[in-house]
Amino acid sequence: MMNPLRLSLTASVLALLLVGCSTPTSRTPAPAANAIEREQNAIAALLDEANRAQPIRSAELRAQAARKLIDIDQRDQAIAILERIDTALLPPILRFDIAKLKAGTALERQNSSQALLYLAEMPSSEPLPTAQAIELGELRAQAYQQQQDNPGELKELIKVAQLRQDPALRQQLHERIWTLLGELPSTSLERLAASGDASYYEQGWYELAINLRTSTDLAGQYNSLATWRTLWQSHPALQLPPQAVAVLFDSSITPTRRIGLLLPQSGSLSKAASAISDGFMAAYYQAQREGQPVPEIQLLDSTLVNTPEQLLNLARTMQLDLVVGPLDKNYVSQIALATELPIPVLALNNTDIAAPTNLYQLGLAAEDEAQAAAQRAWQDGRRQMLVMIPETDWGSRVGQAFIREFESLGGQVVDAVTFAEQASLAGQVRALLKTDISEARAKRIRSVTGNRIESEPQPRNDADALFLSALPIDARQIKPLLAFNYAANLPVYATSHLYNGSPNSISDIDLNGILFCDLPWVIGPPSTLKLAMSQQRDDTDTRFGRLYALGADAFTLHPYLEQLRASPQARISGETGELHLVSGSRIARDLPWARFDNGVPKLLTPVSN
Predict the structure, then answer these.
(1) End-to-end C-alpha distance for the chain, whole angstroms
(2) Closest Cα partner for 296 from 325, 329, 261?
């Protein structure tokens, strides 16, 4: 019996010959056309032979023909040939080759569901050789990835990782597995761990991820890892851990031997420096009371040791292992210009200059709060914002930081105003809400018509919320002015400047409804350290008291700097926020949020990203 495809190809060739005979000028066929024709003839020959061969040999020949068709981008014909093969009695390797060809074509067409159906034709009762089993798992993982099915992809990659013998390839798979685990919502991860049908390898991965996610700070993560290691001593994640986990496995929490605390002992920053030093030493003594190993502290005056060269020379002479400070922004910028730092420096201010490897920056920049406000507003579904900030240097920096962050997220700032004094607040609020335009319009109508038309001014309707940065005395007037201008229900997101740190339901009643971010030291449950310092000082709840928190966190951070650099996901629960490293050197602070309710801040539940 003549194969239909062979007949078609023969007819095509004859037609070409007839056309050639009727053309007076002889032409040489194009090389590409000759190559395709030869390939088509080869395919036809394979199919002719397949028709005469025994079932297994016939399947092999048809698979070869299908591969050639795929190579010349005739996938529909290839699938049609493969679909006609009865794979029930074929050996596992040949059956896999056919399923792989069909599934690969489906994946190229983004048809992951069909690919999984093709791959399901492989019976689990007939194990494949390792090489084919790896390919099968990778194809299934690719299909689940197309479907954005993280659990499905995760399970397949865990199986493949066990089959890989090359440590480098297995390490790559472990990194991918860890990334997928990190992308799973906590509820999904817990559901997988509690399902009861996970393999030994799957369960070990799930529990490792849950343990580290449950313990959000490094100290807790070390304890969780110690427990996990005891239970999973033979698990591949312990033998070849992902990089982020390896850092925790391989590092210790021992503090440095000698720290230089570099702060000004005179000048305009000396009072702030004294508070930072008090917070630092309070954390030092608390650690000592709890039996933790503590370093030797050397106090250094940054007004005397005031250049990077002097600092590094002194660090070598005194055999310092770490410097905490300086506080002055210009000094920090000078250090950032150094090409190399032989020891780590934890600066207590931030610079925009690209920093060398050993420079870390921890500060209380107001811009951090503005960025946090932009992120919170975006997470709450706000897309168009108004901005109101004081006409000051810090107000300008805060406003610019908010606008940059909000627009980078995809939002739009539709209008912004600044205010310089309380007398101008009413006019600025009217201008921002455009109620002054509404009033002027009504006045013009009355003058033209001569009628005494009663009209209610209307605020603009193109904004979802307002970002506000203001001191308490101004904020207490601005919120009522919003209500007076018919915008009482406009959500307001603010920085911590509007809260003096001590609850006062009478003074702050006019702030009701405003959302603001602040340090855990200020709006969170009081820590043991804060309670202890509050017994000795009466200013822990003032804005000045925030500097105690900064000093305390500088001490808390010092054993973990290397781990934070190696593991961007790592967190430290601090007095100034959830601390983690960004941009290689800057310690970012995730801040809690509160809303004024009856004049008192009420802590809000964190928003999931």
Answers:
(1) 65
(2) 261
Q: Tell me, what's the pLDDT at 291?
A: 87
Residues 491, 386: contact at Cβ < 8 Å?
no
- pLDDT for 478 equals 96
Condensed to tens digits (0 to 9), the pLDDT of residues 164-197 reads: 989 999 999 999 999 999 888 888 999 999 998 9
Phi then psi for residue 461, to 5 deg, are -120, 20
DSSP 400-439: HHHHHHHHHHT-EEEEEEEE-SGGGHHHHHHHHHTHHHHH
In sequence order, what are the residues at sequence separation of 6 or more whose Cβ sits closer than 8 angstroms to the Cβ of residue 259? 295, 296, 297, 298, 320, 321, 322, 323, 324, 558
3-state DSSP call for residue 541? coil
pLDDT digits (tens, 9 = 90+) for 437-462: 645 554 554 454 455 555 556 778 99
The confidence score (pLDDT) of residue 609 equals 45
Of the candidates 138, 172, 170, the residue with the CA atom closest to the CA atom of residue 156: 138
Which stretches of the chain score pLDDT less than 50?
Answer: 1-27, 438, 442, 445-446, 448-449, 609
Q: Are 40 and 69 in contact (CB under 8 A)?
A: no
Interacting residues of 467 by C-beta distance below 8 A, sequence separation 6+: 370, 373, 374, 377, 385, 386, 387, 388, 402, 406, 492, 493, 494
Q: What is the largest CA-CA distance in the chain?
A: 110
**585: nearest Cα among 243, 342, 368, 351:** 351
CB atoms within 10 A of CB 144: 22
CA distance 89 to 68: 24
Check residue 105 and give its pLDDT: 85
pLDDT at 456: 59
Give the 3-state secondary structure of residue 517. Answer: strand
Place of tokens 């709890």: 290
Structural contact between residues 394 and 427, judged by C-beta atoms closer than 8 angstroms = no
Answer yes or no: are the C-beta atoms of 343 and 562 closer than 8 Å.
no
Tokens of 261: 């605390």
Cα separation, 156 vs 144, in Å, equals 9
d(CA 341, CA 249): 26
* Pairwise CA distance, residues 564 & 246, whole Å: 13
Given a contact cutoff of 8 angstroms between Cβ atoms, the answer to whether 265 and 305 are in contact is: no
Distances in Å between the alpha carbon of 172 and those of 130, 152, 177, 242, 568? 18, 18, 9, 8, 18
Q: What is the DSSP secondary structure assignment for residue 603, as one 8-state letter?
A: E
Measure the CA–CA gap between 133 and 37, rounded to whole angstroms.
36
CA distances from 546 to 278, 284, 496 (A): 12, 17, 11
pLDDT digits (tens, 9 = 90+) for 1-43: 344 433 343 333 323 322 333 344 444 555 555 777 787 777 7
**Exposed (0-12), middle (13-18) or buried (19+): which is 460, by Cβ within 10 Å?**
middle
pLDDT given at position 33: 54
Please provide the DSSP assignment of 469-512 as one string. Answer: ---HHHHHHHHHHHHHTT-TTS-EEE-GGG--SS--TTTTGGGT
